[in-house]
Design a protein that fits this description.
Shape: globular
Number of strands: 26
Structural class: alpha/beta
Helix content: 25-40%
Strand order of the largest sheet: 11-16-15-14-12-13
Largest sheet: 6 strands, mixed
Bound molecules: beta-D-glucopyranose
Number of helices: 23
Distance between the termini: 60 Å
Length: about 725
C-alpha cells in the first residue's frame, strides 16, 4: 500500500479511493478535474495548457480538432504524443491524477462498422454488441478511454443529418441497441485493455430539432418526453453507462445545458445516475447566445447547478466556480459531488493502474480479421431489401454467366462515402468498392462498367446490357452534424438517371447507399429490386456484392418509417390515434398524397418467405404486476435457410391519456431452415404495458390490450387480452 497516495491502492473500493483523493485536493485541483480541453496529436500543447496539465488544472482531453470533426479529416492518434501528454499529468502534477482521453468513436475506428441507424436495422443487439466490442478494442489500443457514443436520441425526421448516429424512431429498439453498445464498449469493466467508457447522448430531446435543422429548438410534450424520449436513457442508466452528455437544444424554453429539472432532478435523483455528466462542445457558453444567461458567471452557474459536471471545452468553470462559491451561488457540496463523479469515472476506467498506451498493441489489433468479418456481417444484416419483384435478386452467377451486366452509378466504384459521417479513424483506401467485390466473388460474370461521372456513358453501357445494377446514394457529407437537408430525395441527377435507365426496359436493380430512409420515386417506379444498403462501413462493398449474388441474405428491417414525400414528415408508426375524421369514408389526410408511408417501420424482405401463425396471449399474472406470455409460431415457407425478425406490437385500447396506435414491445431474430417452424415467445411485464400518465407518474391500467407478433408494423393486431 502506498501510504503517501492511498488512492493508488487498487484493492480498496472506488468510493474509498475517491474520498481519499478528494480529501487532499485544493479547490483549484478540484475544478481542474471538471475541465476538458481539445488536443491534437500533431499540434501538441500550448505553453498555457502545459502549465495547467502540470499543475492539475485540466482533467480531460477531447482528441479532436473541432466540434465538427466527424465531417472532416481527423488528425490520427499517436501513442507517443498521448503518452507524453499523460506523463505530464501523472509525473509532474502534485497528485498525479491521469487525464481522461475522450474521442468521438461513433461507429468504427480503423475498422468501420455501418452507421448506427443501419445497425439498428439489424434488429440484432448481440451482433451490435460484438461490433462495439471490436471498435472498443481498436480505440482503446490507440489510447481512447472514453467514446462519446451511443447516441440514443429518438428521431422522427429523416431530414436531420444526425439520424445516422442514432437508432431510429422507436424507444424500445433504441434502448436495446444502446444497451448493446454499452455492453460492447464497457464489457464487465471499462478498465480492461480492450474496453472503454461509453457516453449516452444527447440528453435530451435533440432528435426533435424543428424542421430537421441541427441545433434548432425542440418542443416535445411532457407526455412524449416521458414515454418516448426518456426511456432509452433510463435503460442505459440501468445498463451501467459511465457517462451522459447533455444536448445543445432548447426544450420548450429551457436550453438543456440549464435544465436542472431534467439533469439534476430526473437523471441524477430520480434515476439514481452516479456517473459523469458532460456538456456538449461549448454548450454552457451557448447559454449566453440562448439569452437565458446575463453573463459568463451566470451561464456557469446555470450549467453547474443544473448538474453538468464536466465542461467540454473549458471556458467558464475555471474562473466562475470559485466566484460562485464565494458568492454563495454554488454549494461546495455540489463541487465535491461533480469532482467525485469525474474521479469515479477515472478509477472505473483503470487509469490510475494503467495511464499509458502500449505502442505495440495497436498494430496487432487494428483491422483484425474478426473485426472486418463482424463489420461485413453487420453490413449484410443491416441491408433492407425494399422490393424484389419476380425475385430478381439474388443474381445466380451460373444462370447469369454469359449475360452482360452493367454495374454503374455514382456508388459503383465509391469508397469514402461508405464510411459514413462520424468516423475519424477509418481510411477511404481501406473501403472496398461494389464493382471490385462483384468481380472478385463472381469472376464468371460479364460485368460492364462505365465512366460513372457521365450519364451518357452509363446509359450506353446499360443499353447493351441484359441486366442493370445502378448504385446510387448520397455522400456522407450530406449527413451528420450540421448537415441536414430540406428535401428527402436523392442528390441532383440521380432520379433522372434511374428514370432514364427504367426507360430502357431492362431488368433494373437499384442499390441505394444513403444515411437516411430516402424515398426515390424513380426506384419505386422502375426497380425490379431495390436494396437500401445505407452507409455500410469499410466492408460495405463486399457485403453488397455478397447480398446481390445471394452469398448472404439481406437481413435489415426499417428502423424508421420511409415517407413518400418530405411533406409527410413527421410520419412514424407509433403515433397517437386520430379522431373521428378518420372514420369518415370521404376523409383524406392529404388531398395531394397518400397518408400512408412508402415503407412501414419494420419492413424488409429476404430471399426466403415466412409465415406467422395467429398470436396467442396467456395471462400469467394480473395487476398490479402483470405478466402476459405472447407467442406465435414462425415458419420458413421459402427455399432458403434464413432469419426473420419477429416483432411484437401492443395497443392499449383505453387509457387515462391517449396512447399510440401500436408500440413495439419486443423482437427477436429467428433463424429457420426451409420448411422449419419455431415457436417465438415474449413475456410482457408491467414496465412494457404501462406508461406515464397525465401527472407524469408511471401507471398500468386495467382493460383490454391488442397484440400481434408479426413481420412488420403493418401486421394486424389480431389478439387481445384483458388486464384485471
Ligand atoms: C457533438 C457531440 C460530439 C462533440 C465532440 C458536438 O458538436 O454534438 O455529439 O460528441 O461535438 O466532438
Amino acid at each position: 500500500m502506498n501510504t503517501a497516495r492511498p488512492w493508488l491502492d487498487s484493492a480498496s473500493s472506488i468510493e474509498t479511493r475517491c474520498a481519499g483523493l478528494l480529501a487532499v485536493m485544493t479547490p483549484a485541483e478540484k475544478i481542474g478535474q471538471l475541465l476538458q480541453f481539445p488536443f491534437s496529436c500533431s499540434a501538441g500543447l500550448t505553453t498555457d495548457e502545459r502549465t495547467r496539465v502540470a499543475t492539475g488544472r485540466l482533467g480531460s482531453a477531447i482528441l479532436a480538432e473541432s466540434a465538427w470533426a466527424g465531417g472532416g479529416t481527423a488528425i490520427p492518434l499517436q501513442a507517443d504524443a498521448l503518452n507524453a501528454l499523460q506523463r505530464i499529468a501523472v509525473e509532474e502534477s502534485r497528485l498525479g491524477i491521469p487525464l481522461l482521453f475522450g474521442r468521438d468513436v461513433i461507429h468504427g475506428h480503423a475498422t468501420v462498422m455501418p452507421i448506427p441507424l443501419a445497425q439498428a436495422a439489424t434488429f440484432d443487439p448481440d451482433l451490435i454488441e460484438t461490433g462495439a466490442a471490436c471498435v472498443a478494442r481498436e480505440a482503446r489500443a490507440q489510447g481512447v478511454h472514453w467514446s462519446f457514443a451511443p447516441m440514443i436520441d429518438l428521431c422522427r425526421d429523416p431530414r436531420w443529418g444526425r439520424i445516422i448516429e442514432g437508432y431510429g424512431e422507436d424507444p424500445v429498439l433504441i434502448a436495446r441497441c444502446g444497451e448493446a453498445v454499452v455492453r460492447g464498449f464497457q464489457g464487465d469493466s471499462p478498465a480492461a485493455p480492450d474496453r472503454m467508457l461509453a457516453c449516452a447522448k444527447h440528453f435530451c430531446g435533440y432528435g426533435g430539432s424543428e424542421g430537421g435543422r441541427d441545433y434548432d429548438a425542440t418542443e416535445w410534450t411532457d407526455n412524449t418526453l416521458r414515454n418516448m424520449v426518456l426511456p432509452p436513457f433510463s435503460a442505459l442508466v440501468k445498463a451501467g453507462v459511465a457517462s451522459v452528455m447533455t444536448s445543445f437544444n432548447d426544450l420548450g424554453g429551457i436550453p438543456m445545458s440549464a435544465h436542472r429539472t431534467l439533469i439534476d432532478g430526473w437523471l441524477k435523483r430520480e434515476q439514481g445516475f452516479r456517473g459523469l455528466v458532460v456538456s456538449d462542445w461549448g454548450a454552457i457558453t451557448d447559454l449566453l447566445e440562448s439569452g437565458v444567461a446575463a453573463d459568463r458567471l451566470h451561464a456557469a452557474e446555470l450549467g453547474f447547478n443544473a448538474g453538468i459536471d464536466m465542461e467540454m471545452i473549458a471556458d467558464l468553470y475555471e474562473d466562475a466556480i470559485p466566484a460562485l462559491i464565494a458568492a454563495d451561488r454554488v454549494d461546495v457540496a455540489r463541487l465535491d459531488d461533480a469532482v467525485s463523479r469525474v474521479l469515479r469515472t477515472k478509477f472505473r476506467a483503470g487509469l490510475f493502474e494503467q495511464p499509458y498506451i502500449d505502442p505495440e498493441l495497436a498494430p496487432r489489433v487494428l483491422r483484425r480479421s474478426d473485426h472486418l468479418e463482424t463489420a461485413r456481417r453487420l453490413a449484410e444484416q443491416s441491408m433492407v431489401l425494399l422490393t424484389n419483384r419476380d425475385s430478381l435478386l439474388p443474381l445466380d452467377a451460373t444462370t447469369r454467366a454469359g449475360q452482360r451486366i452493367a454495374v454503374i452509378g455514382p456508388f459503383a466504384e465509391a469508397r469514402k462515402p461508405h464510411l459514413g459521417a462520424w468516423c475519424l479513424d477509418g481510411r477511404a483506401a481501406d473501403a472496398k468498392t461494389i464493382v471490385d467485390e462483384l468481380r472478385r466473388l463472381a469472376p464468371a460474370l460479364d460485368l460492364r462498367t462505365a465512366d460513372n461521372t457521365l450519364t451518357d456513358d452509363m446509359l450506353a453501357v446499360a443499353g447493351i446490357a441484359d441486366l442493370v445494377i445502378v448504385c446510387v446514394g448520397e455522400s456522407s457529407i450530406r449527413t451528420g452534424e450540421a448537415h441536414s437537408i430540406s428535401q428527402l430525395r436523392l442528390p441532383p441527377g440521380q432520379e433522372e438517371l434511374i428514370d432514364s435507365l427504367g426507360a430502357l426496359g431492362k431488368p433494373l436493380v437499384v442499390v441505394q447507399c444513403s444515411g437516411r430512409p430516402l424515398p426515390s420515386p424513380a426506384a419505386q417506379r422502375h426497380a425490379g429490386a431495390w436494396l437500401l444498403a445505407w452507409h455500410g462501413g469499410s466492408e460495405s462493398g463486399e457485403a453488397i456484392a455478397r447480398v446481390l449474388l445471394g452469398l448472404a441474405s439481406p437481413g435489415g428491417r426499417l428502423p424508421m418509417t420511409m415517407p413518400r414525400t418530405t411533406g409527410q414528415i413527421p410520419i412514424y408508426y407509433n403515433h397517437k390515434r386520430p379522431g373521428k375524421l378518420r372514420q369518415s369514408p370521404h376523409y383524406r389526410a392529404y388531398q395531394d398524397s397518400h397518408d400512408t408511408p412508402l415503407f412501414a417501420f419494420g419492413h424488409g424482405l429476404g430471399y426466403s418467405s415466412f409465415s406467422f401463425s395467429k398470436t396467442t396471449a396467456v395471462m400469467r399474472r394480473g395487476l398490479p404486476d402483470p405478466e402476459i406470455e405472447v407467442s406465435v409460431s414462425v415458419t420458413n415457407t421459402g427455399l432458403r435457410a434464413e432469419s426473420t425478425v419477429a416483432q411484437c406490437y401492443v395497443r392499449d385500447l383505453v387509457a387515462e391519456t391517449s396512447r399510440p396506435v401500436r408500440e413495439l414491445k419486443a423482437f427477436s431474430r429467428v433463424m429457420l431452415a426451409p420448411g422449419e417452424s419455431k415457436p417465438v415467445k415474449f413475456t410482457l411485464r408491467a414496465e412494457e404495458l404501462g406508461y406515464h400518465g397525465s401527472d407524469g407518474t408511471f401507471r398500468v391500467d386495467a382493460g383490454e390490450f391488442c397484440v400481434v407478433i408479426g413481420a412488420d408494423s403493418n401486421a394486424p393486431l389480431e389478439t387481445s387480452f384483458l388486464l384485471a
